[in-house]
Amino acid sequence: MRQFQTTVLERKTAIRGAHATEPFEAGWASEAIYFVEAHELAGGTLRAVVQISPDGIRWIDEGSACELAEPGQTFVRVAHFGGFLRLALNAPENGDGDTTALVTVHLALKS
Question: CATH says 4-110 is which class?
């Protein structure tokens, strides 16, 4: 029987500039999909890059990414990722230090 798990990594989290989700141990899974929703996005493009790690401490860009130029939803799929996953988000900087994105991120894993 296949196993499946979905978790909310960020729930309406206000971000500005660089932000990363908490590391998630996913070595048991064979595939993953991140669902990214920008509830608010003030100018520019929100970019999300999948990162992998052997230990949950040191991170490497996996190569899969997605972008949002306006509020809405998108996703990014990944496989062959080893032990730990996280999503590195980069929201546009507006110069006055205010939050520029309100984001929810789900991670769905399947073996």
Answer: mainly beta
